[in-house]
Write a structure and sequence with these properties.
It is built from 11 helices and 3 strands; from the N terminus they run H-E-H-H-E-H-H-H-E-H-H-H-H-H. The chain has helices at about 1-5, 20-50, 60-85, 95-125, 130-135, 140-165, 180-185, 195-225, 230-260, 270-290, 290-305; strands spanning about 10-15, 90-95, 175. A 3-stranded mixed beta sheet has the order 2-1-3. Helices cover about 75% and strands about 5% of the residues. The radius of gyration is 21 Å and the shape is globular.
Length: about 300
């Protein structure tokens, strides 16, 4: 086939997170612990929101979808990473590499857009409370959800299309524990300057603009509640603080990885580990610890099932 002739490589070798056996064992244990918390934590959030009629507000609808995206995102890298710890030669096929890259950006950008939607929801709820029920109708919530899925898909297709046009004829060693755009581009046997600029403008600029937009929106919200009653102000500050923590945890590593030229830095692998494995844990931990309604409903759900 013509594609296989131009792309001579059929597989990549992943160099992994570290070459130290003791460090690998430590990382394996930590990742396994994180992963055993990520899935139950996110699924518990989804089950709690779906089973409690009192959590039917748009905020909880979007929170349930955020938990679903986190759980799905954790399936992309962590399981294979855990298996690869026991493999002497960590090999991933070209097609599997492209598939991993596609879903990494599809779900990652979908989650990024969802945080923007959640910021919009909080802005309407706090700054335009009289219009909230009119603006954030169920039909609007589903339309926003569909838009973020389409946006994530379009972004990811562009990433994959740029990679598929590159010739790969060797070497085939990826200096990471998963496939992502910066590492894959380095292995192309052609000048990738233009492609790198397109990647930075597609991923990096999009990430940076969303990050700045989210920070500005939450600053506007916090400024708006300054003159409100202390109870309402405290609730708004608590909600916004939770969202801001999530924004920094998600966008910080993404900005570090995608908004600079694709040169290797010593911290790249550590940042990637946080971004792909540890960050999905932050959603259930932060939201369950800081959201009283979700925490109370979760306790009722657990107690009800224990009693039964």
């Amino acid at each position: 086939m013509e594609t296989e002739n131009s792309t001579m490589l059929t597989e990549f070798i992943l160099l992994g997170l570290t070459q130290s056996h003791n460090a690998q064992l430590l990382v394996f244990v930590l990742v396994l612990i994180f992963y055993s918390i990520i899935l139950p934590g996110n699924f518990l959030i989804i089950l709690t929101i779906r089973s409690d009629p009192g959590l039917s507000a748009p905020l909880y609808f979007f929170l349930g979808n955020l938990a679903f995206l986190d759980a799905s995102y954790s399936f992309i890298v962590a399981p294979r990473m855990l298996v690869d710890f026991f493999s002497e030669k960590k090999v991933i096929s070209y097609r599997c590499c492209i598939t991993q890259l596609f879903f990494l950006h599809f779900l990652g950008v979908g989650e990024m857009f969802l945080l923007v939607v959640m910021a919009f929801d909080r802005y309407i709820a706090i700054c335009r409370p009289l219009h909230y029920s009119t603006v954030m109708k169920p039909r609007v919530c589903y339309a926003l959800l569909l838009a973020l899925w389409i946006g994530g898909f379009a972004h990811s297709i562009v990433q994959v299309a740029l990679i598929l046009n590159l010739p790969f004829c060797g070497p085939n060693q990826l200096d990471n524990f998963f496939c992502d755009v910066p590492q894959v581009i380095k292995l192309a046997c052609t000048d990738t300057f233009v492609v790198e600029l397109l990647m930075v403008s597609n991923s990096g600029l999009l990430t940076l603009l969303c990050f700045l937009g989210l920070l500005i929106s939450y600053v506007v919200i916090l400024c708006h509640v300054k003159g409100h009653s202390s109870e309402r102000k405290n609730k708004a500050i608590s909600t916004c603080t939770t969202h801001i923590i999530i924004v920094f945890l998600m966008f910080g590593p993404a900005i570090f990885i995608y908004t600079r030229p694709f040169r290797a830095f010593p911290a790249d692998k550590v940042v990637s580990l946080f971004h792909t494995v540890i960050f999905p844990l932050m959603n259930p931990v932060i939201y369950t610890l800081r959201n009283r309604e979700v925490k109370a409903s979760m306790k009722k759900l657990i107690i009800r099932h224990i009693v039964l």
